Structures are given as C-alpha cells and as structure tokens.
Amino acid sequence: MSDVVQVDIELLGRQFTVGTPLAERDTLLQAVQLISDKIDIIKGQGRIVDADKIAIMAALNIAHDLLKTKVGGGLEMAEFQRKIRSMSEAADAALQHSQQSLS
Q1: What is the pLDDT of residues 72-98, one digit of tens each?
Q2: The whole model's pTM is what?
Q3: CA distance 86 to 81
Q4: Which of 53, 56, 80, 95 has the most CB atoms less than 10 A away?
Q5: What phi and psi, each to the nearest 5 degrees, are found at residue 3?
Q6: By CB neighbour count within 10 A (0-12 exposed, 13-18 middle, 19+ buried), where does 42 fall?
Q7: Residues 58-71 as b or e (16 or more Cβ within 10 Å = b)
Q8: How far apart are CA 79 and CA 94, in angstroms?
C-alpha cells in the first residue's frame, strides 16, 4: 500500500493541506499548477472578482478542456463516455433479456 503524504498548496490566497499517495504527489502538484494557471487567466480578464466565482469558472474551464480531449479513434472524451454508457446499457438489456428467457 502506498504511503500517504501531506502536501501544502495555495490557491486564491488560501492554504490547503491535501493528503495524497506519495506516487501521486507530482500529479497533484501539476493539477494545482493547472488550476492556478486557469485562475490567473480568469483574474487577468478582470470581469470576475469574486473568489468563489473564479474557482467555479476555473473548474468549468478545466472540465470543458477535459471533455474536448481527443481519445483513441479521434473521439472526444464526452463522445467516448456516451459510447461506453450506450454499450453498458445494451449489455445490461441483453443480460436482462437473457435472464427473462431462462425463467
């Protein structure tokens, strides 16, 4: 089992201590940097000044970027997730039909 380490971070002038597996520490720090960069961009535009709104906009921007990310076969992440959900639903329906046939 991985050792958990405490990492001190700062976002929007607030201090946080986050527990993370040692093996994921660098990834956490990269995430903090990504969030910090998005916050700086939003603050730099000067239209939003409330810290809560800035944090929400940064989260929305990052989520949007993630969903636009291309995965295998050129699919966007959102389309990839829809296809997986559709396949899962089809498998569930087939299993349910199979179970009803056996009854």
Answers
A1: 667 777 777 787 888 888 887 777 776
A2: 0.66
A3: 9
A4: 80
A5: -75, 140
A6: buried
A7: beebeeeeeeeeee
A8: 22
Q: Which two three-digit tokens encode residue 36? A: 């910090």
Note whether 84 and 91 are within 8 A (CB). no
Q: What is the pLDDT of residues 31-70, one digit of tens each?
A: 999 999 999 999 999 888 899 999 999 999 998 888 787 7
Token pair belonging to 48: 């939003």
Take residue 11 and report the two structure tokens written for it.
Answer: 């976002």
Helix 51-68 to helix 77-102 angle (10° resolution) is 70
Angle at the Cα of 70 from the Cα atoms of 40 and 82, rounded to 5 degrees: 110
Q: Which residues contact 81 (CB under 8 A, 6 or more apart)?
A: none
Q: Which two tokens stand for residue 51?
A: 């810290």
- Give the integer Cα–Cα distance in Å for 14 and 68: 30
